[in-house]
Amino acid sequence: MLDVVKNIKNYNVKEAVELLKQYRVEKKRNFVETVDIVFNLGIDSKQAEQSVRGSVALPAGSGKKVRVIVFTSDIEQQKESLAAGAALVGMEDLIEKIDKGFLDFDYCIATPDVMRTLSKVARKLGPRGLMPNTKNGNVTKDVVKALKEVLKGKINFKNDKYGIVHMGVGKVDFEVDQLVTNVNAVINAIKELKPESTKGKYMKSIFISTTMGPSVVIGTDKI
Asked: Which domain CATH number covers 146?
């Protein structure tokens, strides 16, 4: 099976997912592996206008328990956010906690009016991809709606300096159709963000893999 997975054939999304799941059956793990997708994009990452950054809602969810914190000074929004599943809510007290080193969370949401104050910890949040950003939809007046979307499986992504975009699209114990739906949602999101100034082939290659498994090539001509 390993040789089949490693060959240079380009698969469509469903074939690639089926191969990963078959490999998982043959190679038992003592934990449930994440399914990752990697895009090699034909962009010049040094050019700001060619940055590929955004968010996508995974229809079948991510399979990951996400700790979300919400920054808002509105007391009612704080109560509603906690009721909806936020790990922590607050403003100055939460910022002070982060400034002292607290980073035990996966996602931040903030109302527009608190962004200036939140900039105090931008150096803590930014390098970890946690700083709220309007492009990701996590700077919003409706923090409760944004929170519910994240808890259902919304994820952020951004290319690195090599033009690579990497993200998890679910767990290997998902049904084939669930993973296919998630992968297609991510592919479509990346497609829609193609910078106008790019030249040549935009999606150079796409791979999916499990945490400890080999990669499977998804043919860019089959998406």
From this structure: 3.40.50.790
| DSSP result, 7-58 | SS--B-HHHHHHHHHHHHHHS--SS-PEEEEEEEE---TTSGGG--EEEEE-
Whole-model pTM: value is 0.79
Is the separation of the CB atoms in 162 and 154 below 8 Å? no
Span 61-88, pLDDT tens digits = 999 889 999 999 999 999 999 999 999 9
Tell me which residue has tokens 């089959």: 222
Stated as kind and residue range, the H or E segment containing 170 is strand 164-171
Question: Per residue in 15-67, pLDDT tens?
Answer: 999 998 888 766 667 788 999 999 999 999 999 999 999 889 999 999 988 99
Select from 117, 133, 152 the last residue of a domain: 152
